[in-house]
Specification:
Length: 90
């Protein structure tokens, strides 16, 4: 099990980015969370098997239709097992 922590930059707030990220993570069987950051970026922390995490990372490169992603800063670590589902944090 792995953990992906990603900061997504660009026009990613106010375009349902968190909603579609949660749907994609749930579809892939991942757990963790997504949240808006005060600097206008979106942060994602997801845990699960490597392949689904890589698929989520690919989704984050473009996001939903209204988003415009300019950069994704990603870090990979070992999973902590602290999550039981994938949530939107407020």
């Amino acid at each position: 099990m792995k953990r992906l922590t990603a900061i997504v930059y660009g026009r990613v707030q106010g375009v349902s980015f968190r909603h579609y990220t949660r749907l994609e993570a749930q579809r892939l069987g991942l757990v963790g969370w997504v949240a808006n950051r005060p600097d206008g970026a979106v942060q994602v922390v997801a845990e699960g098997d490597k392949l689904p995490l890589e698929q989520l990372a690919a989704f984050l490169q473009h996001g939903p239709a209204m988003a415009h992603v300019t950069e994704v800063a990603a870090q990979w670590q070992e999973a902590t097992g602290e999550f039981s589902r994938f949530d939107i944090r407020w």
